Amino acid sequence: MPNAMKTALLLGAMSALFLLVGQALGGAQGLVVGFLFAALTNFVSYWFSDKIVLSMYRAQQVGPDSRLYQLVERLATRAQLPMPKVYVIPEMSPNAFATGRNPSHAAVAATEGILRILSEDELEGVIAHELAHVKHRDILTSSVAATLAAAIMMLARFAMFFGGGRSDDREGSNPIAGLAVMILAPIAAMLIQAAISRSREFDADAGGAAIAGSPMGLVSALRKIEGASRAVPLDASPATAHMFIIKPFSMGGMFSLFSTHPPTDARIEALLQARG
Question: In the predicted model, what is the mean pLDDT of residues 202-221?
Answer without folding.
Answer: 96
